[in-house]
């Protein structure tokens, strides 16, 4: 993190540690940096923000309860707010894959805030200092704060980013379904000819699928509002003021403007990671639907000369380094990749959720990273899908009409008149001779006004 060539010496329970002079973090963070050089990735900005919210809220609650002197509390709150704002992000340096349950990450926050608060008070890092454990971590444990930070970061990102993005996608698909409703085309089942359908009807199906996911996501997010601050190490509320939990959660709610509340059962909260698991299941289902929708759009736009070519997509970039003029469905492919990552993430969160023993789940850093990454990926991908693809889709009406009129599925319209078996033979003959259903009927003298009406695609939708 630091380019400084000067260091200071700090001590923890294991002895002396050499730390870059310009780093706000301390000995335990430095040990984690040296021990866990695994992925080169830190936990997301949204998680670090949530840590800052918790530390500021805890300092205020402890001050109001008379446990933390006001000068220390105010300095800690100011430093924690800088964490919330992202000013101190460069000092959060612990790898995602770290000591179980996130002890290193919690100490990273405690040390950064303690040292910055000490500086705010006008003290030097070598002098009279605010203590990371005694003051910044007062009334807390890694076990309740890390878990709560996952919920806070997840809820904020879903409410402020993902849900609006899902709603935007639904609105655009709905608008597009209305725009494309006049366009008739062939339906397909098993990728083979089926009854006619309106292009707008296909899009209305996509829109309603996304709309349902929106409601499922809203419902699942409600579980994230349970945060067990004050549970401390194992849920027994050890070393806290009787009013601490109520006050700290109230302050988190004020800070975020979200309805956080105490868990129904503190021990269940401490033992399990239910809320991220439930939300990830919704995100996995959403990813599955998005893969289906984007795959459909790739099929419908395939060609432009050798595929269905029933719709055209906006051209956003050249598609080949060797084939001049080729344009691929790049945005749809990007979304598909994002969805594959989200589906894999759900499996990761599920297996990590099974890895808890007794009073705590030690896999929370992995859950935090994977869970928040899935929300971030979808929050970024959906607006791109809407603005660079969905909103610019246009119908190729002539191609739609051509495929529809050639479809063997039209024979279904006369099966109630001539019978299923005879209709099957007519369809099979048309297929074998590569001619239309109408031609076969005309040759057999069956093209009556009643049959012609039954073959009209508009009467079938």
Automatic annotation (TrEMBL):
Gene Ontology CC: one annotated term: cytosol
Domain Fumarate lyase N-terminal: start-end pairs: 15-344
Keyword Zinc part of the UniProt annotation: no
InterPro entries according to UniProt: Aspartate_Ammonia-Lyase, Fumarase/histidase_N, Fumarase_C_C, Fumarate_lyase_CS, Fumarate_lyase_fam, Fumarate_lyase_N, L-Aspartase-like
Domain Fumarase C C-terminal, residue spans: 410-461
Gene Ontology molecular-function annotations: aspartate ammonia-lyase activity
Coiled-coil region list: none
Domain of life: Bacteria
Pfam families per UniProt: FumaraseC_C, Lyase_1
Keywords: Lyase
GO BP of this protein: aspartate metabolic process; tricarboxylic acid cycle
Record's protein name: Aspartate ammonia-lyase
Source organism per UniProt: Sutcliffiella cohnii
